[in-house]
Structures are given as structure tokens and as C-alpha cells.
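Attaching the record inline, Q. Sequence:
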Amino acid sequence: MSLKKATLLIIVILLIDQISKFYIKTQFSLHQRIEVFSWFQILFVENDGMAWGTKLSDFIPGISDRKAKLALTLFRIFAVIGIGYWLVVSVKKNGPKTLIIAIALILSGALGNIIDSVFYGVIFSDSYGQVATFLPEVGYDTLFHGKVVDMLHFPIWQGLLPQWIPFYGGEHFTFFEPVFNVADMAISSGIGILIIFNKKVFHEEDDHVEKNPYDVNE
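Structure, as predicted:
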């Protein structure tokens, strides 16, 4: 798979992700929801941390939420640079198509969420009890402190867990509880491909390197 095709895939996913987030941010107030089906809702929430709303400050004692947020955003930027390098190298080595698609998915998703974290605090007003304004005089936060916009919610099943389940028996449970976005889907899909096809992907890559140790364009 060529770098041009991989880049096109990244751009398409990035556009879908950002267009959906822009629409939600400018049409919904925070926590507003629309039920599309009983098992699928559009629910606007904002994520200030890592996956599932976890914050870096939850794991590092003594660090403030703002410093943790900045550190997480900077880490994501460096991670994206590394993933981008991995993609370019894999393409130059004529790596397996499956591997290149997986890396492109992960990269597009990471870029999508980084845009939120870096710029959204500046280019949008807050969404508490109101629909946000695009390019306000003053945004809801500073550069690098934006919140990731999530909106896809699939409460496929809700109910009380059986009493015989240890610790959680009798408690209300929702499957699937987390709210996510297109970028999260891309990242999860890319990682899933690497896990499911891991032997095939990395075995083919190793075989190619052994056969073509000098000519990366063969």
C-alpha cells in the first residue's frame, strides 16, 4: 500500500471525525442527547483526560489536573510523531497492507483527538447549559487544554446484574457504557487489527526485511 493511499485514508477519517465533532459542539449543549434507536444515542460529553475519562493526575500524586492535561497532550503529540514515522518506514519497506492500514487508522484517530486537546479550548466557547460558539472572543480554555468531544453511545443492554455475581450483583449495569467518537473507533480498529492479525502482519514484515535488507523499494 502506497503512502499516498495511506495518507488519503487518514485524511478521510480525520475529516469525518472533525466534522462530526464540530457539528456536535455547535448544535448540542453538554450532556444533551438524542435517541436514534433504543440501543444507540447521540450523547454529547467532553473528555478531559485519557480513555474512559481517566486523568493522568489519578496516577501521579501531587500533580495538578492542568499540568497533567498539558503533559498528556504533549505526550500524544510525540506519540503521533512516532506513529507517523512508523507508517513512513513501513511503506518504504513495502510492509504488509494490513499493517499499513492499521497504523493509518491509529494515526488518524490520534490526530483527531489531538486537534481537540490542542485547539478546541481556544476556538470554542464552553458548552455548559448552552450551545458553544465557534471562534469566540475568548475560548473556554487555553491552548493545549481543550477537551475531547465524544458523542457515540451504545447502551445495548441496561438492567440489574444477577445477585450471584461477586461484588457487583444487584447493581444497575449498562452495556456499553462509555461514550466515544470516530477517532476512538479508528484507534480501536487499528489496534484490533494488529492484535487479531499480529502473527501474519509482523511475520510478513520480518520475511520482507530478510529478503530485501538493502533495497527498500523492491
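The radius of gyration is 20 Å. Confidence is low (pLDDT under 50) at residues 213-218.

More tomorrow.
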